[in-house]
Amino acid sequence: MSAPAVSAPAASARIVLRGAAKRFVTRRAAVDALGPLDLEVAAGEFVVLVGPSGCGKTTLLNLVAGFESPSAGSVEVDGVPVTGPGPDRAMIFQEPALFPWLDVEDNVGFGLRQHGHLSAAERRAVAAEHLRLVHLEGFGHAYVHELSGGMKQRAALARALAPQPRALLCDEPFGSLDALTRERLYAELQELHAAKRRTTLFVTHNTREAACLADRVLVLSPRPARVTRVLRIDLPRPRDFYDPRVSELAGQILALLRGDASGGGLSRG
Amino acid sequence: MGETPAPARRGLILLAFLAALALLWQAVYSAGFLPGYSLPSPGQTAARLVELARDGSLWPSVEASVVRMVLGFILSAALGLALGVAMGVSPLADSCLRSLFLGVQTLPSAAWVPIALLLFGLGDAAIYFVIVMSSMAAMAIATADGIATIPPNYVRAARSLGTSGLALSTRVALPAALPHVVTGVKLGWTLGWHGVVSAELIKSSIGLGFLLHAGRELNDAAQVVGIMLVTIAIGLLLDRLLFSVVERRIRVRWGFAPDSARG
């Protein structure tokens, strides 16, 4: 469809973690949640992180998002160390976290307010464009609670994309949706990715989801998370969720995960 | 719990209840347990209110009290919400102000009147002071509590959309806490209304509190009871017209209202 090599623009971020580690110190104990871990995500790449639950996947995303800072090592986006959250790295959570005091359109336009230079009319236009992108045209003036789960997550996606972030960080965004909605969203997410080639870091523990979406799947160890295996997925896009090749890869990923999980008791820190 | 009746039916039930209450009042009066100068009948009370309205002493006092209340309350709400937001976003501000405000809240409104008179003399400034001291703390605490219970992902989503600093308070924390804030403001309104009437009771030459005080001085029980009823009615009316409407709209928007639930 599109020519990704040409259209992969400077508008996508390159994410580099070097020796990044996170240790949470509580009054009782110190918990190593992550790493030390090295990771390079190329501009425009779609990387999926899978790992046993509680392994520190979310911590990794939080470091890149800037919600937390590494205890050791570095996290850089386009060569600049991450010092805090910013509109260049949009985050999508498992629950949509839409703002109930705003209608859908104002939610989508929320991040644009921070850019300052857009007029209200321009903001509305950008919001409407992104609502179209996620197939929510006509719902701009709905209240958040009037949307179904899938529509909410679409609106959250539109809100994240509207300020033109260079990276998209997804923390199990489809985890609480029903299967049918989820499968439709896989297609839409691939469409969006093909159009803009935004660097995407996507956390899940659904192995089929990983195989369906990723350019590269990183299998993480139990806590503290390290990359134990890397799987490059070269299947043509858009991929069908029920493509037998996707199923086969999902099986491979699952096997890798199981192998890690069974040895997990030892490396628990 | 039984089923909630339809609004029209609920109105009728309430009217019937109030009528029964008035009948009970009349019965107690007619039984003659209490001397007429300490307990007036419903009819005497109504007649006295009509008289007060006719001779032009009721309306200016209602107006004076309401205007004082509105001005004092705007001041109080502005301070209370600002301090509440500060407490909600800053643990330092919260640990400093919370126990102070909880302490201040234990004082009845009337207890602020003597110091208000000493500080501000006999003018309306003393009344505004009493309103603020009666109602601000409740609004600040409700706002702070509301902000403390915001889903953390609202704040994270906003920060990853580039929101920081003051905008995080005004565009996220305060609106996200709105359901709590409105409850606090409603409570603040009631407490402030206590404050106005208490202050007027002790030192004023006009206002509902003044009419209450004058009624007692003149041993006019009908006036005392009548003004009490007017005070209740106005407090209730403003609550219903102002805050309940806002509260209901917020509940609908947030999806809390039972009739707004959809798939």
Tell me the β content of chain A: 15-25%
The unreliable regions of chain A are 1-10, 263-269
Order of helices and strands of chain A: HEEEHEEEHHHHEHEHEEHH
Query: What is the helix tally of chain A?
Result: 10
How would you name the CATH homologous superfamily of the domain at 66-151 and 179-256 in chain B? Answer: MetI-like
Q: How would you describe the shape of chain B? A: globular
Helix content of chain B: over 70%
> What radius of gyration of chain B results from the CA coordinates?
22 Å
CATH class descriptor name of the domain at 66-151 and 179-256 in chain B: Mainly Alpha
The separation of the N and C termini of chain B measures 25 Å
Tally the helices of chain B: 11
**Quaternary arrangement of the chains shown?**
heterodimer
Number of strands of chain B: 0
Task: Classify the secondary structure makeup of chain A into a structural class.
Answer: alpha/beta
Q: How would you characterize this protein structure?
A:
The complex is a heterodimer of chains A (269) and B (263). With 269 residues, chain A is α/β, with parallel strands linked by helices. Helices cover 36% and strands 23% of the residues of chain A. Chain A is built from ten helices and ten strands. Chain A has helices at 4-7, 57-65, 104-108, 110-113, 120-133, 149-161, 179-196, 207-213, 244-262, 264-267; strands at residues 15-25, 30-41, 46-50, 72-77, 80-81, 89-92, 167-171, 199-204, 216-220, 227-232. Residues 1-10 and 263-269 of chain A have low confidence and may be disordered. The radius of gyration of chain B is 22 Å and the shape is globular. Chain B is mainly alpha-helical. Chain B has a domain at 66-151 and 179-256: MetI-like fold. Helices cover 79% and strands 0% of the residues of chain B. Residues 259-263 of chain B have low confidence and may be disordered. At the A-B interface, β6, α4 and α6 of A face α7, α8 and α11 of B.
